[in-house]
Design brief:
Helix content: under 10%
Number of helices: 1
Radius of gyration: 19 Å
Number of strands: 11
Shape: elongated
Distance between the termini: 32 Å
Order of helices and strands: HEEEEEEEEEEE
Largest sheet: 7 strands, antiparallel
Structural class: mainly beta
Length: 171
């Protein structure tokens, strides 16, 4: 419940500009992603399986010059699937510096592509057996291509997001 409240507060945070427009120097733009996944599989024979995950990625960008923003975010998550002795669960956390460039389409809209380069650490464990624990580290690149529609100090963004793993190591 605490994570959901934090996510709602993050989504309600306005863009803070001194007295100018989005993209002006010293404008701070909080951002974030909240993801929840649930799956349930019922094979024709055998037991059903289900799984879920939740991920929160808060961050902030600061416009250092006109339309150029630097910043970053953190990533935290938890996942669980299966049941009883076959239950798998684990955590994900990481960091991601980001760079963005605002292309305004007048005062009410714009295109704000962003590039991120980050590191993730994920654990996965079967039941409570310590020997069945997997640790994976990943370096990734994020490409975020949202179109923004400004509503006063707030905005709504819509567009594609792609995460590409460039390196991964299991331990």
């Amino acid at each position: 419940m605490r994570m959901i409240c934090c996510a709602l507060l993050l989504l309600a945070t306005p863009v803070r500009a001194h007295d100018g427009r989005f993209g002006d120097p010293d404008t701070v733009m909080p951002f974030g992603r909240v993801a929840h996944t649930y799956s349930h599989t019922q094979p024709s024979q055998g037991d059903a399986t289900s799984g879920w995950s939740i991920e929160l990625q808060p961050g902030a960008l600061v416009f250092v010059t006109r339309n150029v923003a630097l910043g970053g975010g953190v990533l935290a998550g938890y996942h669980s699937s299966g049941a009883n002795e076959f239950r798998r669960h684990g955590t994900v956390w990481g960091i991601e510096p980001r760079l963005g460039y605002n292309v305004p389409f007048g005062k009410q809209a714009g295109f704000f592509p962003q590039l991120g380069f980050g590191w993730l650490r994920a654990t996965d464990q079967v039941a409570e057996v310590e020997t069945e624990r997997l640790l994976q580290q990943t370096i990734f690149v994020d490409i975020d291509l949202p179109f923004l529609f400004h509503l006063g100090n707030y905005f709504i963004g819509i567009g594609p997001f792609v995460r590409l793993d460039v390196w991964a190591k299991d331990q």
